[in-house]
Amino acid sequence: MFRSLRARVTLGFVAIALTLLLVSAVAVDSLRRLGGEIETILRENYRSVIACVDMEEALERQDSAAQFASTGHDDIARPMLAAQRAAFARAYAVELSNITLPGEGEAVRGIDVRYRDYVDAVDRALAVDAGAARTERYFRELLPRFTRLEEATGRVLRMNQAGMEAADRSAKAAARRGVAITYGVGALALALLIAFTWWLPRMIVRPVQRLADAARAVGCGDLDVEVADTGVRELAPLTEAFRRMVEKLRAYRQSSLGELLAARDLANVTVQCLLDPTVVFGRDGAVLLSNEAARRTFEIEAGDPPAAGGEGALGHVFGAARERAVATGEVVAPGNLAGATRWRDRLGERYFQVRATPLRAEADDGRVIVVAQDVTRLTRIDRLKSDMVATVSHEFKTPLTSLRMATHLLLEPGTGPLTDAQREVVTTARDETERLRALVDELLDLVRIESDAGALHRVSVEVDHLLRTVVDGHRAIAAAAGVALEVEAHGALAPARVDPEKLGIVLSNLVSNAIRHTPAGGRVTLGAGSDPAALRITVRDSGEGVVPTDLARLLERSTTRGAHEGRWRGLGLTIAQEIVLQHGGELLAESAVGRGSAFTVVIPHEPERAG
Fold first, then answer.
1. What is the pLDDT of residues 574-591, one digit of tens each?
2. Listed residue (465, 448, 519, 496) closest to 603, CA to CA
3. How many CA atoms lie less than 13 Å away from 321 in the CB half-sphere?
4. From-to residues of CATH 3.30.450.20 in the chain
5. Which of 69, 132, 270, 545 has the fewest CB atoms found within 10 Å of its own CB?
6. Looking at the domain 5-198, which fold is it?
7. pLDDT of res. 564
8. Residues 89, 93, 95, CA angle at the centre, nearest 5°?
9. 376-451 adopts what CATH topology?
């Protein structure tokens, strides 16, 4: 029954409509009954009460006229009597036509008898000459008759008032009954509506919900789910199509199950054969798989629960890389040996380059494979290289200082005259000595920066103040070279969180390089800009420019000569790039031969730290 959604919905609306009609009918009937009671009061009693009041008022005025007549004021009494007798007759006619109560007719006819007797007595009194006889007749005959007539009229009035009170009580009782019936029917209607509200969605939604549950189970990999008949005609084609789809998926899984198992075994064997410690994390951070190297080096086993960052080998070596990969959805890998993770165990201090790769593109999937490559030997070699470079550079500084002083003294006039050929040789020796000194200083700076890799001291810095400090420090050098050095006008910039000392080295190297490669009469400018993502500082010159083949190798660690002009260049750009990378940014270079070069420092914003 009711296998159609349309029939079920129609049934629900019909039930609601019938309930509303029932409530409306009961309310209308109650109002109709109450209106009938009120109409009865108005028709049966109210008109009689008004007529009795009018009769009493007419009688009182006739008694006043009789009093006037007893004192001899016939001119006032007779017109008043005529008018009030007509008023009494009209009121009596209304009451006579509206007799509705038991005994009311007899009482009304009694009023008529007494009234006629009273009228005759008044007329007889008026026929007597004015004087003491008329006054004595008023008190002896008229006043007693008036009193009895007024009592009879009052008795009819009280009968109708009692009828009104009874009708009022009946109307109130009918109203109470109507309200009670309306409440009862309303409560019944509400219960029916609640029942239909509970029953109708279940009739409509339950079949769809069963189908959705089956689809959800299939989505979770349960292809053995039973797709039952929903019992709804409109959903039958969809149910049948879904059932056929599940059957085909089940057949496909059975046919490809062997291939999937083989692929899984191949992946496990591949991970186990890796020489570097490898850990595969599940969605919740627990260890799904670890190879022999990970078990031997870090004692990490499959099934280990998630570890907080910094807690044991699982958290310290692997956890941070996994969290970054999950957060970004991208491969996480250190750019150089300075980013290696340090780990101390029973074998001593060791260094690992940790690489994390999400198994899926979605950042929130959570499954990550992390490989820790042991670079302890390479780190020690790099440290030995840096120490050797630092030692050699320090050893070079003493003889270079002596050579530099000697060449400068030879060019002093007090040392004695030199031939032009000698002066040219000494000048060349002095220039080369200066270059050697600059190279040694740059090598020492590079070694110090590499040894302090990542040790930034970020503070909030006013960018405009930093630019002007760098310009002021190079203004004398620029003036000596005949190069204009200035800061481009820019809008107000928010303070940036950077290491001012190291960023100052970057800008100083870029400005020095720009002045060195800009001919006299040229211009070097510093400009800055900021967007929600990063701070950008550009050093632009109008110098000689760089050919495209050299531009690609401009930031390499090299002190060779430029291919197009044979000019020496040191490690200043390399040092600048290292510092920018420590800030998490990048150094961009643009150049064209004859049109100058532009170097842009891009540093991502870092939020202010509380406290």
1. 777 878 887 788 888 888
2. 496
3. 29
4. 274-374
5. 132
6. Four Helix Bundle (Hemerythrin (Met), subunit A) (1.20.120)
7. 41
8. 120
9. Helix Hairpins (1.10.287)
165 within 8 A of 45, measured Cβ to Cβ: no
As to burial, measured by CB atoms within 10 angstroms (0-12 exposed, 13-18 middle, 19+ buried), residue 473 is: middle
Q: What is the DSSP letter of 341?
A: E
Determine what percent of the chain is predicted with pLDDT higher than 90.
5
Write the CATH number of the domain with boundaries 274-374: 3.30.450.20
Q: Which CATH code, of 3.90.1150.10, 1.10.10.200, 3.30.565.10, 3.40.50.300, is assigned to 457-604?
A: 3.30.565.10
What are the residue ranges of CATH 3.30.565.10 in the chain?
457-604
352 neighbors 340 (Cβ within 8 angstroms): yes
- Range(s) of the chain covered by CATH 1.20.120.1730: 5-198
CA distance 220 to 418: 92
Contact criterion met (CB below 8 Å) for 463 and 537: yes
What is the pTM for the complete model shown? 0.39
Closest CA to 181 of 17, 21, 20, 25: 25
Residue 218 bridge partners (DSSP): none
**Could you report the per-residue pLDDT of 416-454, keeping only the tens digit for each?**
777 878 777 778 877 777 777 666 666 666 666 655 555
The pLDDT tens digits of the residues spanning 134-191 come to: 778 888 888 888 888 888 888 888 888 887 777 777 777 777 877 788 788 778 877 8
Neighbouring CB atoms inside 10 A of 255's CB total 9
Strand pairing report for 484-487 and 523-530: parallel
Residue 516 CA neighbour count, 13 Å, CB half: 13
Check if the beta carbon of residue 318 is closer than 8 Å to that of residue 285: no
* Six-digit token string for 29: 């009937």
